[in-house]
Write a structure and sequence with these properties.
three-stranded mixed sheet, seven-stranded parallel sheet, globular, alpha/beta, 19% strand, 12 helices
Length: 299
């Protein structure tokens, strides 16, 4: 297939590109920059210049593809709600081009949307449109397209990691460095799911090849890693004190990250493994955190 990949030079997209090529697909990768276009060409892919704000450019990329994988997202969390709404617009634009065909559109969301009532182990067969996470906008947009006949499926992400980046844990580390201590809320017994970035990339490839309309997948290796265990490893890496915080202290300490600090986001990938034949093999989250260079801030 000729696959249009948004976010092709990003953290996850740059790992998807070589796996798609190795599987025999052609890749049309969306990039904002000439350096991104150069990287794509060296990898063996074709570049398509567009930004998340350029909906016409995004539609043009999808029009020339047999399938679309959408991983691009504006990760400026100080404008998280607005960026989630931007993602809704991008998904809607992609779907408008694919409507009336069976060409698959694989979009991206978070595992929390699979928590019934907003709590408990998140599963693939649950979609909670009342979830407080603003990322619900992505799945709402996907559902509207699905009901309009577009072949949409969803990849839900946990904390995706390697030794350089770890999802929400990367800004957690930056905040800890800035504040001079590593904090966690209460007992820190809430859990965050995780998976290595190469395993996640492989899940995207398997899902777009399966092309099942309405399917939802959890790209999860570890169902839940305790936040206190994460904080303990980070404190050792930064050589900073570890401290339990009250809700009031946590809000002042974490800022925008405070909305996630106390959430239990544990998630299952049982159905994903069965449906895709997907078996994660990468290192654990804590192993990557132990092996990272804490003198270098995440890009």
């Amino acid at each position: 297939m000729r696959i249009f990949l948004t976010g092709a030079t990003g953290f996850i997209g740059s790992r998807i590109v070589p796996q798609l090529l190795a599987a025999g697909h052609q890749v049309l990768g969306m990039t904002r920059s000439e350096s991104g276009a150069t990287w794509l060409a060296k990898a063996g892919a074709e570049a398509h210049h567009a930004t998340l704000e350029d909906l016409d450019g995004i539609r043009a990329g999808a029009a020339n593809a047999d399938a679309v994988i959408h991983t691009a997202f504006d990760h400026d969390f100080s404008h998280f709600v607005a960026n989630c709404e931007k993602d809704r617009s991008v998904i809607t634009a992609l779907g408008s081009v694919l409507k009336g065909s069976q060409r698959p559109l694989l979009i991206t969301s978070g595992t929390g949307l699979g928590q019934g009532g907003g709590q408990g182990l998140a599963t693939e067969d649950v979609v909670n449109f009342a979830h407080p996470n603003p990322r619900v906008a992505s799945e709402q947009a996907g559902q509207a397209l699905l009901e309009a006949g577009v072949n949409v499926s969803v990849m839900r992400l946990p904390q995706v990691h390697d030794t350089k980046r770890q999802g929400l844990i990367s800004p957690f580390i930056d905040i800890s460095r800035e504040k001079g201590l590593v904090g966690y809320l209460g007992e820190g017994s809430n859990r965050w799911p995780a998976a290595h970035v190469d395993d996640v990339a492989r899940a995207y490839v398997l899902a777009v090849e399966r092309a099942e309309a309405g399917a939802r997948y959890n790209a999860v290796d570890e169902e839940g890693v305790r936040v206190r265990d994460i904080a303990t490893v980070v404190a050792a890496g930064l050589n900073l004190p570890l401290k339990s915080l009250t809700p009031e202290q946590a809000q002042a300490h974490f800022g925008w990250l405070g909305m996630f600090a106390g959430l239990d986001l544990s998630a299952s990938s049982k159905l994903t493994r069965e449906r895709l034949g997907w078996t994660p093999t990468g290192p654990s989250l804590l192993d990557d955190l132990r092996n990272m260079d804490y003198t270098v801030a995440a890009a």
